[in-house]
């Protein structure tokens, strides 16, 4: 570790900012009238599109509602149940859901709740009397309720894990205990005292959820309304319209989406201030709200369970579809089971799975090395990342992908770089890095510095302290951070498609291509393979520390 | 812009055959000499062809996989299927490369393409050619009875090679709907009596646009104006009046009252299997039989055409001007027109696509392979399908789609 102190942090910052900045520039240039044949100004065309009002409103309402709901469920679950056995079980149920790819979860949910879906089939016709499915607009409803539900189911596990990771950096539990001794019911005390400090720690992840929910494409295509669709889906359509003049409109739309996300973030910030004021007023009023607590507890558990079960049942339905013979309505189960789908897709699945694993492993390893290097540089030289640094870290997650990836593709071509595997790995790295840092920073800072002081006093060099003390102590968190990065890479669709030039096929690009058709069996097989690929490193992250430290319980991590 | 076309033409055919080094478009359209074809074969050996084709159908993917195996054995050409969710992604890719000045060694070698995408690429000079009518298997193609030399009225002029015939059919489940409506007027009456039991893929999905065109033609009769660009047809409003009053009356009686639509054709089939609708439009006469074999439709699914006939067109492959493997791409395009590939594509167990070949141009053995095919329980015979109606000019597709979106596609 004799690198100049700033090398790794500088490299990391470059990897986070350059693709976003350059990509944005090259995406937006056409919107501003450069690089395009003359025609009606793209912004005029955008505003003339009859769906612009509803699509904009949908992007706003679904993004805000999904974020508020995920945050509320996370807070309620933690408020009511933290430290109990039910919480441990719920936590165990929710953690693996983090690695379920978004498209797979959305498909599962769609099949679950549709009028001809699994729930309806289980109850029909004996209970409902529905010989044919009722003509109800449940999935793809105009208000985007199904989309909100799908996003909430995927984002709640993420926020819950973020919240748990933030615990070590606040004295929230001690504060909540004080509130309890002052006579506040547990859940109310937690919400009033512990939550504000925790929220300050998870603010950026919440912004990421908001930005993501407002601009998501794959989930919105599956669960969202389509007359008109959300803004991000419509931009993607313009981007791929045979009428090539619409690319300028797509660029203008991307700029509009960016402005929308940024102003909604500002709006959310304002909401934070209002909520903080209300909370403070409530806390100082001295009301103990005893009746509310039991209700909040029950609601938290019910919503947490609903989130976990809907994703798990959705996955189960996909597993069943992948082996189903004919499965018509209203049968609760298929006529026959058959391995035909797996026989047919198995041989094609292997090479694709290998590419997926290779890209994910390369991106996650690179991210882990960079992140560890950055954190070590921080620790040795005593500088901490300020608010600006944390913002840079979150930049690729806060800017809608659709706003900068197409530009990045044009840039690469302009520079004469070939699309392919390595550009894909690099583009994944931009998205994997932030999550890896989020996952590792907490545990890194949580290690008691006195062990290092002792080691230094015994004459161990900085490098020796790093290799022989820091890394073994961090084995479990390192593996978890690697697994998180790996899962993030497995789920990437747009970067793989655009920077791979279509030549890099992963389980996710295959699954999304299949969803444009209607073969639920093939979709099920690919979604399961995709989920398995993302889950694999999580399983290893649990197993390896247990094997390596079989006789040292304290080292096994969580 | 002519230069961008001339250059790759020189490259591919010039490299392939010294005799053709100064390529003369006239000599190309009359066919490659057998010697020149040998040169193309030699140049193709060892090339990798990236075929960008829609990847949403399991049966199509399996067929393309088989084509890859065969051209590898026969010609040493490696075929990679780049599975798209939308063909226009490949068009955008070539356009991005053109904008970036990457005029050779592009990412796309071959595209499955049709109608508006073809018109756009041809108009922007993004295609290599003409090559199609020079390919050896062109001699078997049915140019008299099948519309393989225009694509949505746009002259193909050898810039794409046909590989399948498609015709509109409607799929119904005989168990639930034994007597399906056989005209658009009857469809409206039936939908009013059975609200929520019909839908169509949402335009601009090509099958959704096809439904609009089919309704237009069925309500108006074939109109001369349709073969001209919309701008030239002075009476767009009059021509489409019947269509829009039909659509306005139909929409509230559609599945989900027209507030949501399936995104693609295959999703409609899933809706039939789910019992949500009773009728679906398809552009592939053999799709229903293939879907039954694949457990995606009930065994009681059947197809029919409207009494007044239905639209038909050919599926094509085209080679971008900057393809990195033009010889290999021509080998694949030629193989797709071979009697062997055509007979396999027509097999409903495989694809169920109509052939582009003329049976009377084939040898007895080759014809026997087609005659031996069991077209499947839900597939109509060529006589039952009748002669396909010609596609309107692509500008009609664009205009009808735009108007539908403005009236019904964004109303929440």
Written description of the protein model:
The complex is a heterodimer of chains A (558) and B (412). Chain A is mainly alpha-helical. Chain A contains 23 helices and no strands. Chain A has helices at 7-31, 42-48, 52-81, 85-94, 102-113, 118-123, 145-167, 172-181, 186-215, 218-223, 231-239, 246-285, 290-322, 340-381, 387-398, 401-414, 421-446, 450-457, 462-473, 475-490, 494-499, 507-515, 520-548. The longest helix of chain A is centred in the middle third of the chain and has 42 residues, at 340-381. The radius of gyration of chain A is 24 Å and the shape is globular. Chain B has 412 residues and is of the alpha+beta class. Chain B is built from 16 helices and ten strands. Chain B has helices at 2-16, 25-29, 34-44, 58-75, 88-99, 115-123, 184-193, 206-220, 236-250, 265-273, 287-293, 326-336, 339-346, 364-371, 382-385, 394-409; strands at 48-54, 78-84, 110-113, 150-151, 154-155, 160-167, 169-173, 279-282, 301-304, 312-318. In chain B, the strands form three sheets. Chain B has a five-stranded mixed beta sheet, with helices on both faces. A three-stranded antiparallel beta sheet of chain B has the order 8-7-9, covered by helices on one side. In chain B, strands 4-5 form a two-stranded antiparallel sheet. In chain B, strand 4 and strand 5 form a beta hairpin. In chain B, helix 8 (206-220) crosses helix 9 and helix 13 runs parallel beside helix 14. Chain B starts with a helix and ends with a helix. Classes of the chains: A mainly alpha (558), B alpha+beta (412). At the A-B interface, helix 14, helix 16, helix 22 and helix 23 of A face strand 1, helix 4, strand 2, helix 5 and helix 6 of B.
